[in-house]
Amino acid sequence: MPVTHSQGTRIQFRNLSKVFNNNKTETLALDDITFDIEPGEIVGIIGYSGAGKSTLVRMINALDTPTSGEVLLDGTNIVGLPEAKLRGIRRNIGMIFQQFNLMSSRTAAGNVAYPLQLAGVPKAERTRRVQELLDFVGLGDKGSNYPEQLSGGQKQRVGIARALATNPSLLLADEATSALDPTTTQEVLDLLRKVNRELGITIVVITHEMEVVRSIADTVVVMENGRVVEKGSVFEVFSNPQTDTAAKFVATSLRNTPDVVEADDLLAHEGRLFTINLTEHSGFFTAASQLQADGGSIAIVHGGVTTLQQRSFGKVTVRLGGPAEAIDRFYTTLQATTDIEEIQR
């Protein structure tokens, strides 16, 4: 194991704003952002292009300066600190990039060794540390390979090893899997989970892909137009999104409700269609049993159940037939305990 931390970095944003001035035109990139990231958390920050995600990351490692507000790392406000102090703080922050940012003239081992050279680590210790890190990311036999000899997933593993070289307690991943295929993406996300689990490092993942958040994050922060519009556990946001933006992102990952084409096909058949939220307290099965006892029929025609953070939730679309009174009773019963919506022709 390359390093052990008792806990990662705590990040606190306080009334953080950033205004860019371009040709006398002001753009509000961050708008009064206040929230906390706890030590050892994996936080997914998601939003569409222009939401302010990457600008927010640049505030964490002080590569950009806010117009107003504070960024506190373990209680220290880094806004306005002199560059000499910021260099020391940045050594505690690892960065993983979308395009890997490896030096083509250096081997995998040479890329991982580079930040250790900058830190003045003696050669023997560098060699030992580099091999330890390459073993940790599953590339122990690839140290002599150059980037052009590595696959995209292997390049990103080298990038992760390099980010861990200086024993950071905070890791920032800015669209780190956007250039990878789905299988390789999952392998990289599994590795980041391992980093968090075994080393205790706080990880901030910037992404526009909800599947990435679903796979790795503990907490989700949804951004839109420079503001945080929603924040909660992965389970809370996926099972019950509170904003249109979050709901649209969740829909791209879960696919548990029929789209327009599927709904049209389902409506072509006899019966009434309802989409129902399934939760621990939805009462779906009790209501379904009562419907059948009242002479009605029920068939599940679409849906899915997901388990996140050891809790399950989902949606089903059902086709109901039989007496109108039985169907109305089913609807009224469920309406009292969960979300139910009829799909109309």
UniProtKB/TrEMBL annotation:
SUPFAM superfamilies noted in UniProt: ACT-like, P-loop containing nucleoside triphosphate hydrolases
Keyword Nucleotide-binding carried by entry: yes
GO biological process: amino acid transport
Presence of keyword Hydrolase: no
InterPro entries assigned: AAA+_ATPase, ABC_transporter-like_ATP-bd, ABC_transporter-like_CS, ACT-like_dom_sf, MetN_ABC, MetN_ABC_transporter-like, P-loop_NTPase
Any Pfam family hit: ABC_tran
GO cellular component annotations of the record: membrane protein complex
Domain annotation ABC transporter: ranges: 11-250
One GO molecular-function entry: ATP hydrolysis activity
PROSITE patterns in the cross-refs: ABC_TRANSPORTER_1, ABC_TRANSPORTER_2
Record's keyword terms, sorted: Amino-acid transport, ATP-binding, Cell membrane, Membrane, Nucleotide-binding, Translocase, Transport
UniProt protein name: Methionine ABC transporter ATP-binding protein
Lineage, uppermost ranks: Bacteria, Bacillati, Actinomycetota, Actinomycetes, Mycobacteriales
